[in-house]
Amino acid sequence: MTPRRWLAVRLAVSVAALGVVAAVVGAGAVGAGAAVLRPLPVLAALGLGGAFVALSAARWRVVARAGGAPLPGRQALGEYYRSELLNQVLPGGVLGDVDRARRHATAVGLLRSGRSVLLDRGSGQVVLWSATLVALATRPELLGSVLPGGPVPAMLGLLVLALASVALWWWARRRAVVVRRRDVAAVVVLSATGTACLLTLFALAAWATGTAVGVAELVPVGLVTLVVASIPVGLAGWGTREAGASLAFVAVGLPGAAGVTTSVGFGLLALVAVLPGLLPLVRAHQRVAPQVEVEADVRTEADRS
Predict the structure, then answer these.
(1) Backbone angles phi and psi of 178, in degrees to 5
(2) Vertex 144, ends 91 and 197: CA angle to 5°?
(3) N or C end of the chain, less CB within 10 A?
(4) Alpha-carbon distance 74 to 65, whole Å?
């Protein structure tokens, strides 16, 4: 499948999923998510986004150093902002990470850079899935909203994902990555705090859209929504995330429309949160443009002579 067709498929998945959700709960629930685009929620989202990116960049530095691919803090921060923005606007939700690995490879080689990015994303997913499993243990009625087929297949599916994450760390050790206890502890703390930032952003979306939901329900449904959003289909989780949030809200006795509205608001705020990633993109373009002009002048002079 060509890149254009793959892009079309991903966009179609998101549009179709949003269409189905809108047909079930009403288009008004989707449009109501735009209520988050007000000064206070936007400013709060930028702050939460900055905290999340800083924590994630620090985690990347930990695993990169362990794998023999160190990078400066300022570079890690800029690259992570750029990566998160690309993940938000490009299909699949991982192309920003691919670009991050490619750019880091110029300094440390593709194998080390790719491994560090894989471990960075994988470790974050380990913590997210682990937190979700704990939340689901306290609210078993949510199990069926994570995966179809009822509680047992859902729990088994999540356990498989968790075991796959453990296997990722085992693979890292086999590949000569120095996994020290303090590094593992740092990664867990940074990932857990980053997940807390995303949950706070979800709570912000609920507040900004007027969704009445208690903390006891907000945390588990938020974690389920984050898990569903991390599935690499569609465009930045749009459509599938709203469907998952709707099912999760219904599972805990809340209106499905409220879940859709909150999820749409969360998606918009998540995009706002990584907009500072435009700065690294613009700077990269400004560095490339003069070089292209110089090369063009050199070719012109060569042609004249």
Answers:
(1) -80, 100
(2) 55
(3) C
(4) 15
Contact in structure between 136 and 142 (CB atoms under 8 Å): yes
Contact between 191 and 128 (Cβ < 8 Å): yes
What number is the average pLDDT over the span 63-75?
Answer: 88
H-assigned helices in the chain: 3-25, 27-31, 39-66, 73-89, 95-108, 110-138, 143-146, 151-174, 181-208, 215-229, 240-251, 256-273, 278-304
CB of 73 closer than 8 Å to CB of 305: no
- Distance CA(240)–CA(237), nearest Å, equals 6
- Residue 95 pLDDT level (bands cut at 50, 70, 90): confident
How many residues appear in the chain? 305
78, 61 Cβ separation under 8 angstroms: no
Distances (CA, A) of 129 to 116, 126, 243: 20, 5, 19
Q: Looking up tokens 């693979």, which residue turns up? A: 171
Render pLDDT for 231-279 as a digit per residue (tens, 0 to 9). 877 787 888 889 889 989 988 888 999 999 999 999 999 999 999 988 8
Long-range contacts of residues 24-30, Cβ cutoff 8 Å, at least 24 apart? 24/246, 24/256, 25/246, 25/256, 25/257, 25/260, 26/257, 28/257, 29/257, 29/258, 29/260, 29/261, 29/264, 30/242, 30/260, 30/261, 30/264
Averaging pLDDT over each range in 64-68, 133-137, 189-193, which range is the top one? 189-193
pLDDT digits (tens, 9 = 90+) for 168-183: 666 665 666 666 788 8
- At position 25, the amino acid (one-letter code) is V
Whole-prediction pTM = 0.83
CA-nearest of 125, 10, 87, 14 to 274 is: 87
Report the alpha-carbon distance of residue 165 to residue 122 in Å, rounded: 6
